[in-house]
Amino acid sequence: MKTMLTLIILSVGIQAASAQKGKCPPDQPIEWIINPTYVDGTTPNRILGDGVPYINGQSGVAAVIQVCSGTNDATLQISSPRTLSLSFYNLLYPTPQTPSWALSGSMETDTTFLNVRNLLFVPAGKDRSMEYTFTTWFGTGGTPTGFKMRGPAPQAPQGGAGGGNSPYPESLIVVHHCPAGANTSTCPNPVQETWFAYPDPNPTASGASQTTGLPITQVGTLFVSSKGQTVNAGEFSMPFLFTISLLP
Asked: Does residue 133 fall inside a structural domain?
């Protein structure tokens, strides 16, 4: 009897797990474009693609909105033959842990992962058939440990710890949502539902960087591993503009 009861409980548990798994909505495949200039149309972007859109399912590309996990993050994972680069040309503030290549303003070509957090967030009073804007976070992965833009008080819920924010607050990421078929000056007739993501252009601190004299805009923090810990390795200005669209 005890054995039979155990089998019944196990069977129910397996069925419940299977049902729960079956309810998980699939991740949404996307196309991710890294534009050559910032949203102002003139400032060179410091996150650079290889010149071709990154389309989920192509060789070396996994680009999806993480629906099943519940984060609704837009993620881009690449491998050979695809590449992308981060330029650390605009140093705002170094730390003792800033790598020599970042101090010299080098291009970092080993980054393999981009993440715009909670892309499917919809502000109160809006729905995805409308045009709207909100703020969120952004991060990279691969080598180096990561570059983060996690400014204070984003509108889209995040979870997890904030950014380095030292000595300058990091920038929020502005996301502008365009429904498919919209036809406005800011949503020029996208065929598929589309999001434009870029760092807030407003300064995060007054004046200019005391270290370099650069404007304190598009601020993010480089994190590296040191003695088994992830540490702040300096702040940089990192303008970029992503165009992220659902695939048909």
From this structure: yes
Please give the average per-residue pLDDT across 113-129, as a whole number: 97
What is the share, in percent, of the chain residues with pLDDT greater than 90?
77
Identity of the residue numbered 56 = N
Q: How confident is the model at residue 245 (pLDDT cuts 50, 70, 90)?
A: very high
In a domain, 12, yes or no: no
Q: What's the pTM value of the predicted model, to 2 decimals?
A: 0.88
109 vs 246 pLDDT, higher one:
246
- The continuous run of DSSP H or E covering 236 comes out as strand 229-237
Question: Which among 154, 196, 146 has a CA at the least distance from the CA of 171?
Answer: 154
* Gap between the Cα atoms of 139 and 130, Å rounded: 27
Q: Please report whether residue 177 resides in a domain.
A: yes
Amino acid at 219: V
Is 65 contained in some domain?
Answer: yes
pLDDT of residue 21: 53
Structural contact between residues 31 and 247, judged by C-beta atoms closer than 8 angstroms: yes
Q: How many domains does the chain have?
A: 1
Which residues, including other chains, have CB under 8 Å from residue 226's CB and lie 6 or more apart?
Answer: 97
Cis peptide before 25 (omega within 30 of 0): no
DSSP assignment of 166-197, as one string?
Answer: -SSPPPPEEEEEE-TT-BSSSSB--SS-EEEE
Structural domain boundaries enclosing 216: 25-246
